[in-house]
Amino acid sequence: MEELIAKDLTLGYDNSILIKDLSFTLEEGDYLCIVGENGAGKSTLMRTLLGLQKPISGTVEMPGINATEVGYLPQQTKVQRDFPASVKEVVLSGCQSRLKGRLFYSKEDKKLAMDNMVRLGIDDLANNCYRDLSGGQQQRVLLARALCATKKMLLLDEPVAGLDPKVTLEMYDIIKQLNNEGISIIMISHDILSCVRYAKHILHIGSKIYYGTTEEYLASDLGEIYVKGSEAHE
Questions:
Q1: Which residues contact 192 (CB under 8 A, 6 or more apart)?
Q2: 204: β partners
Q3: How far apart are CA 166 and CA 90, in angstroms?
Q4: Is 155 domain-assigned?
Q5: In 3D, which of 157, 174, 182 has the Cα closest to residue 31?
Q6: What's the chain's average pLDDT?
Q7: What is the pLDDT of residues 34-59, one digit of tens each?
Q8: CB of 105 within 8 A of CB of 114?
Q9: Does residue 101 lie within any of the structural domains?
Q10: What's the domain range around 110?
């Protein structure tokens, strides 16, 4: 079943076009990595999928999914890393879309937040201040927060940026496990070797646009150039 349909998208700002005539679909339980050159429009595409930015032309549809049911893990700014709230407060804020006019979180909301903290192994940090955590712990907190908003789809923007190699592998394993549990993943990443290791589909954005299965991408001229180039820098 298709969960996301992007059709004939043209994206950009004012008179500057970054992406033209882009079409792709996301199936239920898919794992899509968006890769490509800096400044090619990957984050612009992510904002468009989230409904935060309108396309110049084209459409994005999410059959059967409400926009409030999409979990989002953005890149962190320095100010956000220094946020003076407890871990449980940050995670619980992911339930805001569930309030629907209520002023306070329900017992069900609080249970969902705790369940997701347990799920990501951070329940023992519930009363700790978010800004005192390591980078890897903060990413787990934000991922737990995103999971409070969805049971269907996660959009992740460079989720391992700035993390050390061990924590990076742990984060990738967590994301893959969530995908194995049935959550669809759309992830922007510069780590192309990990993308082709974990993802089912690759969307490459740049001077050339390519969309296909990971196997098809690896066999393509574009995939061969970028994957071999990344391997050479390992």
A1: 35, 226, 227, 230
A2: 35, 210
A3: 24
A4: no
A5: 182
A6: 89
A7: 998 888 899 999 999 998 899 999 99
A8: no
A9: yes
A10: 76-150
